[in-house]
Design a protein that fits this description.
This protein has 217 residues and is mainly α. It has nine helices and no strands. The N and C termini lie far apart (49 Å).
Length: 217
């Protein structure tokens, strides 16, 4: 498969994902507040991300797969960790500022309002999916393959487009700006480190904090 063919396939993939998620949001509204206390949600999430990973690997297959997915060590781990921390700070500052106006956290409506010990097992299963599997697959999809394919048009164009598409596939309106900022920050880290691993670390940390904070504050 040519790089142009991969770009067409990747563009089609993210377009379909965005369309499905916006349609689902329009038809069904917010998810059940207790969805993360259900094993079925974890199972569904696992299947969804397994399918997405399979498609991404199929698009990236062939010689140079690791290069296309940025599966390599950062040029410098200390610098990568510094950039990752900086990206996390920027995301939190932007999220706080935008949430004062957009109330994006309420729009997504995914995390529960309180802790339910009887459903700890299901919450743990969903935690693994959201804080482990999702960051890994999404980073390979956007900051791995997506950034690699768009970089030919320039780093900053790739950073902006990756951030925007990352936001769009989540199917949110008020939450789109912060998700786009989040995606762009991770793409910036990817461009400066040459690796997808720091982005996975930031993404997993961000999701983990959100899940822990939801049931402890």
């Amino acid at each position: 498969m040519t790089e142009r063919g991969r770009l067409v396939g990747w563009t089609l993939l993210v377009t379909v994902l965005a369309t499905i998620n916006y349609a689902a949001r329009a038809a069904g509204g917010k998810p059940d507040k207790d969805v993360l206390y259900q094993y079925s949600a974890a199972a569904g999430g696992f299947l969804q991300y397994a399918l997405l990973l399979g498609i991404v690997l199929a698009l990236a297959r062939g010689p140079g797969l690791r290069e296309r997915l940025a599966l390599r060590r950062p040029k410098s781990w200390p610098r990568a960790l510094g950039l990752a921390l900086g990206a996390l700070v920027v995301v939190y500052v932007a999220a706080y500022a935008l949430d004062q106006v957009l109330h994006a956290a309420r729009e997504q409506g995914l995390t529960p309002d309180h802790w339910e010990p009887d459903h700890a097992g299901a919450y743990a299963a969903n935690f693994v999916v959201i804080a482990g599997l999702a960051p890994t697959v999404e980073e390979l999809t956007f900051r791995g393959l997506g950034f690699h394919l768009l970089r030919r048009y320039g780093d900053w164009i790739a950073i902006v487009l990756v951030g925007l598409t990352f936001g769009l596939v989540h199917g949110l309106i008020e939450g789109l700006p912060i998700l786009a900022v989040f995606g762009a920050c991770l793409a910036f880290v990817r461009s400066r480190t040459g690796s997808v691993y720091p982005g996975v670390l930031v993404h997993a940390t961000f999701n983990s904090i959100a899940l822990v904070a939801a049931v402890t504050t």
